[in-house]
Amino acid sequence: MKKLSILGSTGSIGTQTLDIVRRDKEHFSVSALTAGKNVKLIEEQAREFSPEIVCMADEGAAKDLKLRLADTGISVTAGEEGLIEAASVKSADMAVGAIVGIAGLAPVIAAIAAGKDIALANKETLVTAGDIVMRAARDMGVKILPVDSEHSAIFQCLLCGSAPEKILLTASGGPFFGKTREELTDITPKQALRHPTWTMGAKVTIDSATLANKGLEVIEASHLFGVGADKIEVLVHRQSIVHSMVEFADGAILAQLGSADMRTPISVALNYPERSKISGKKLDMFSVGSLTFEKPDLKTFKSLRLAFDALGAGGTLAAVMNGANEEAVNMFLSGKCGFLDIADMTEEAMKNHKNIKPPALADIYGADREAREFVRRHKWA
Ligand code: NDP
Fold it and tell me: Are 373 and 345 in contact (CB under 8 A)?
């Protein structure tokens, strides 16, 4: 029986994780659940899965939840302190990092410090503080098991035990693949939220449309698998069937294929080193048709180039890239800036930053704050 602390249980990854738990109560139970402010859903989850602790990042939402759960004996906590308590709750064996954005970093660090293995979906954790997080995991002897489908694919390919020569990271290309910069000028949030293959939270869906998501994944892969930017190649693969590949020194390429169902990589991480049956549509190889691979357009989708720049530079630059992007995505979603402004402002924030190498955690949070303020201060056209 593995006990889970699910950080971000009300989101796309969180609810799919709970779906796996719901169908496999013999092997999994829940020690803690956390959310931002979705009180209604987390109340339902708490009543169904009976965790010890439930935390709401939002203090007002936590007060509301406390009243709603008064009859249950479940402890309700609030804010960052509460998240850290939930992440490090004694009874849990593993924490699932499924909070969106840099808000997920501190709870994951706390879970590592408490000796929990991590099933990591929150890529921003490794993008902003990859060196610190990976070092802490090594020191504590805990496993970081990737949930991101591409990184799960790479992880599975690397189970052969050989060192990778090159990582071939696939990208769907998002809803605007093939468009020119000019054609993207008037893109609305509604258009950008329509992903061709995956159903995900709003932030990661917009990141997929700008290709910032693939950029963040390049940095994430570098930390997870210990390879430099020169050993990571991005391939646009519109069918989203090959979830990523690894090339080895002898020229062999291993790939992991499957249907676009996040429950597979979640299940791989939760069950490692075993594999478990999950329900759902399996990939029918006869209906796959052709698999295509193309080079990404780094001019139109410059967020991807910016991520390679940040990875090459090291230090706090990736935290700036991440923070500026996160803030700009929020502004785009609330109609305060245009689609192309997201990458433009990220680039400006990166140019404006004085890189700190090697950074302490405080430098990373400082860089994140600086980037967000820079984006907020900017006069949007
Ligand atoms: P969602 O937006 O669907 O869910 C995010 C979760 O985090 C929710 O539980 C939300 O609570 C909570 N949350 C939001 N803000 C805060 C905050 N400030 N403090 C604490 N908790 C907060 O995101 P996804 O599930 O799509 O993505 C989660 C992470 O996984 C991201 O880093 C993403 O890049 C990564 N990922 C997602 C994939 C997917 O298929 N969705 C695929 C691969 C990676 P509330 O509901 O109350 O707002």
Answer: no
At 307-328, the pLDDT tens digits run 999 999 999 999 999 999 999 9
Distance from the alpha carbon of residue 198 to the mean position of ligand 1, in angstroms: 14
What is the maximal distance between C-alpha atoms in the chain?
A: 62
CB–CB of 316/359 below 8 Å?
Answer: yes
pTM here?
Answer: 0.97
| Closest atom, ligand 1, to C-alpha of 15 | 25
**Does an H or E element contain 43, and which?**
helix 39-49
DSSP 237: -
Question: Is there an atom of ligand 1 within 6 Å of 36 CB?
Answer: yes
* pLDDT of 381 higher than 60: no
Q: Residue 123 — very low, low, confident or very high, per pLDDT cuts 50/70/90?
A: very high
Q: What distance lies between CA 222 and its chain's CA centroid?
A: 14
d(CA 326, CA 196) in angstroms, rounded, equals: 22
Can you list the alpha helix ranges (DSSP code H) found in 165-296?
189-192, 202-210, 212-225, 263-271
Q: For the segment 278-299, what is each residue's pLDDT rounded down to a tens digit? A: 988 899 999 999 999 999 999 9
Ligand 1 atom at shortest distance from the alpha carbon of 38: 47
Q: Is the pLDDT of residue 378 over 90?
A: no
Pairwise CA distance, residues 60 & 79, whole Å: 10
3-state secondary structure 58-69: CHHHHHHHHHHC
Structure token digits, residue 158: 């690397």
